[in-house]
Design brief:
The protein has helices at 35-92, 97-127, 140-157, 178-194, 246-252, 258-268, 331-343, 354-363, 380-394, 409-417, 430-450, and strands at 10-18, 24-33, 136-139, 161-166, 173-176, 200-210, 216-224, 272-278, 282-293, 323-327, 347-351, 368-372, 400-404, 422-425. It is α/β, with parallel strands linked by helices and 451 residues long. Among the domains are: 137-301, Heat Shock Protein 90 (2-Layer Sandwich), CATH 3.30.565; 323-450, Rossmann fold. Strands 3, 4, 5, 6, 7, 8 and 9 form a seven-stranded mixed sheet that branches. Strands 11-10-12-13-14 form a five-stranded parallel sheet, sandwiched between helices. Strand 1 (10-18) and strand 2 form a beta hairpin. Helix 1 runs antiparallel to helix 2 (97-127) and helix 4 packs antiparallel against helix 6 (258-268). It is extended and about 110 Å long. The termini are far apart.
Length: 451
């Protein structure tokens, strides 16, 4: 420290030297002023602390945002079940042509809102690292048919041709995630239909040879004769919340999430996605993913054009007189389920809480329970656990289907781990719900005959 109080930081090094007889001859010493270096080290250390604190705050903020989006999506799913269910019920009545058209418009708008909710939920899954993929056998042609059925009404209303072509060498049965694959196809083909005013949209599927791990490389392409994409706008296509420009957002709608989510899904599948486009002439979006090859099932041998979805429409024949217990605290969903299940020849009782559901199960003779996960007094997990515990003493096992607005993979796993037999997410697809009930009751009947 100098007389004026100024401190100087010195780096001091010294070494001794000796003669041949190892007698000390002297010392070499050097001193260097490192005051500025120490000051910079201190500044760097402080900045690192600031950056670490900022990182922690950013992670917490991002987690709060993701939780908010997931919770918002969850809270909107339950009322959307009521909206879609009531619209389905109205369409079952005899309506004038104009009335039917108005209801169908409302139905289309409601389903568009559900797709936006699904996009928001997928975005939160990606940001939270919770976007998971299944590896299950599925029929590729059934997957394509699902996409076709979704897009055909819009394509027909615009006078567009909608064509699907599958090369003969493409296996009928594959192993992968059919739900996510269908999501990508519907996003790409849906955009093609949206941005095409005349002409056609064509979806082609071919094989691209063998991939790693003995999988087949399956290539999909979606080609349209639509408006195309300007060259100077193409680099923003796969960004989150990106539109080609504001006029497209106003004219065609959309959140700008679909392509970004599709790219994420394809890449997580181990594939690639690309596009080519000319403004005013149309676009082609193509992606390739590796998929395992499954042993063909008996069903896959049927005609590719067979239709199974919605086979058990409300009012169609159903298993004779099964008795169901529906545990659901939302009055609108109870009403919709009640009407649809009664039309399908099911006898129904309702419980408005988990505790009431357990009590009614103990005194009733039910074939199946539809169990909402979130209920007052006792939630669906607790009610299922109570029933399974009592079954160990009294024998038997009643099928329980979970109904939940939570749509993460771990939510499904939690339902199955809790002792539930199946899982449907809200907003409920009532046709699929009725078909699931039918399938589970048939499985129960077959097990009973075998025993």
């Amino acid at each position: 420290r100098a007389r004026d109080g100024k401190e100087t930081v010195v780096s001091f090094n010294a070494t001794t030297f000796y003669d041949r007889d190892r007698k000390l001859q002297g010392v070499f010493a050097a001193a260097r002023d490192v005051t500025e270096r120490k000051r910079l080290d201190q500044v760097l250390q402080e900045k690192n602390v600031e950056l670490e604190n900022a990182r922690i705050v950013a992670e917490k903020t991002n987690l709060i945002k993701s939780d908010f989006l997931a919770n918002m999506s969850h809270e909107l799913r339950t009322p959307m079940t009521g909206v879609l269910g009531m619209l389905d019920l109205i369409l079952l009545d005899k309506l004038e042509a104009q009335q039917k058209k108005h209801i169908e418009i409302a139905q289309t708008s409601a389903r568009s809102l559900v797709r936006i909710l699904n996009d928001i939920l997928d975005l939160t899954k990606i940001e939270m690292g919770k976007l998971t993929l299944e590896e299950i056998p599925f029929s590729l042609r059934d997957c394509l048919e699902t996409t076709y059925n979704i897009l055909l009404p819009v394509a027909k209303s615009k006078g567009l041709g909608l064509h699907f072509t599958v090369a003969d060498e493409v296996p009928g049965s594959l192993i992968g995630d059919p739900t996510r694959l269908n999501q990508v196809l519907t996003n790409l083909a849906g955009n093609a239909v949206k941005f095409t005013t005349k002409g056609q949209v064509e979806i082609r599927v071919v094989t691209g040879g063998r991939a790693a791990g003995g999988k087949r490389s399956i290539a999909f392409s979606v080609t349209d004769t639509g408006i195309g994409i300007p060259v100077d706008k193409q680099d923003r296509l796969f960004r989150l919340f990106s539109q080609v420009d504001e006029s497209h957002s106003r004219s065609y709608g959309g959140t700008g999430l679909g392509l970004a989510i599709s790219k994420e899904i394809v890449e997580r599948m181990g594939g690639t996605i690309a596009f080519a486009s000319a403004e005013g002439k149309g676009s082609t979006f193509a992606f390739t993913v590796p998929l395992g090859e499954a042993v063909p099932s008996h069903q896959d041998a049927g005609a590719p054009g067979r239709r199974e979805t919605g086979a058990d429409l409300p009012g169609a024949a159903a298993p004779s007189g099964p008795r169901l217990l529906v545990a659901e605290d939302d009055a609108t969903i109870r009403q919709v389920l009640g009407i649809l299940l009664l039309r399908s020849n099911h006898a129904i009782d309702f419980a408005e809480s988990g505790r009431q559901a357990v009590a009614m199960w103990e005194t009733g003779d039910y074939d199946l329970i539809l169990m909402d996960v979130q209920m007052p007094l006792m939630n669906g997990f607790e009610a299922t656990a109570a029933i399974r515990t009592k079954e160990r003493a009294r024998g038997g096992r009643i099928p329980i289907i979970a109904m939940t607005a939570h749509a993460l993979k771990e939510d499904e796993e939690r339902c199955l781990d809790a002792g539930m037999d199946a899982y449907i997410s809200k907003p409920i697809d009532f046709k699929k719900c009725i078909q699931l009930i039918k399938d589970i009751l048939q499985q129960k009947s077959r097990r009973g005959r075998k025993n």
